[in-house]
Amino acid sequence: MTQERVHSHDVTQAAHDVLLERGVKISDIAEIVFEMQGPYNEKLKMEECIESVEKVLLKREMQHAILVAVELDRLAEQKKLSEPLQTLVETDEGLFGVDETIALGASLGYGSIAVTTFGHLDKNKIGIIEKLDTKRGGGIHTFLDDMVASIAANASSRLAHRLRDIEENLPKNERRIIEDE
Ligand SMILES: [Ca+2]
């Protein structure tokens, strides 16, 4: 039996939709990127951070990880997970690290800046990550807070590499545009 393949446009749209539905706007993630990269580039503009987040969200691996993360959070909210997983996810049990593992895995393709930035954001939850982590406004976001950290970390890394390329006046075709690799 051959199943019809899901079109990548549908996956891209779904990843954007679930983030919004769960209260995460692209600008929320871009603000974190700005905070991470601003100290290294005084000319950094918010639009560049937004663009970088949008590019990261075009990556298929990211989209899949986002969909898995949000689905698990939603199932936990609906009490549809089996025990003991239901309680582990619902209570965001301290030693339950699968949420971080999935998010960290999604950052590996963006190099060491992404990995170290993810570690920083995991410890110092800022902006929307803190809001999700402290469950302000209700809902379970055990997986989503880490995914947002991963998206922000990847967008930060991508931006750092691009800005260096631009600083060095590399011609466009030589710029290491990570999403094209
Ligand atoms: Ca978490």
TrEMBL record:
Domain of life: Bacteria
UniProt domain YutG/PgpA: residue ranges: 31-161
One of the record's GO molecular function terms: phosphatidylglycerophosphatase activity
GO terms for biological process, alphabetical: lipid metabolic process
InterPro entries: PgpA-like_sf (IPR036681), Put_PGPase (IPR026038), YutG/PgpA (IPR007686)
Name of the protein: Phosphatidylglycerophosphatase A
Source organism of the structure: Jeotgalibacillus salarius
